[in-house]
Design a protein that fits this description.
- There is one protein chain.
- By secondary structure, the chain is an all-alpha fold.
- Helix 1 runs antiparallel to helix 5 and helix 3 runs antiparallel to helix 4.
- The longest helix is centred in the last third of the chain and has 35 residues.
- The model has no long low-confidence stretch (mean pLDDT 83).
Length: 104
């Protein structure tokens, strides 16, 4: 955790840090969503605690799988829109924001 906090505190905005290889791309973000442990645990928890014990037909399980996918898509979209809205103020004050995030 200290290693990650140190790198967050030292990081620069992309336009300043353009000399380095950046992994900020749609493809990298899309791939990371399949490796995101929070999303995997969310799906397993909802499925095992709420769906399996109540619904047993394949149609209902498939319907809830679609609902879970929709909720995940809406959550990711809100996260992306929030990042887009806060991009300009955070780039302007990137040093302060990085130190606060590293402290957390």
């Amino acid at each position: 955790m200290l290693y990650l906090a140190f790198h967050i505190a030292r990081s620069l905005p992309e336009e300043i840090d353009s000399g380095k290889n950046s992994d900020n791309s749609y493809k990298a973000g899309f791939t990371m969503q399949f490796l995101n442990i929070k999303v995997i645990l969310y799906g397993i928890t909802v499925y095992s605690l709420f769906i399996v014990h109540t619904y047993h037909t394949p149609i209902m399980i498939a319907l809830f799988a679609l609902i879970l996918a929709l909720v995940g898509f809406i959550s990711t979209t809100c996260w992306g829109l929030g990042g887009n809205i806060f991009r300009k103020p955070l780039r302007k004050n990137y040093r302060l924001f990085n130190f606060v995030m590293a402290g957390f």
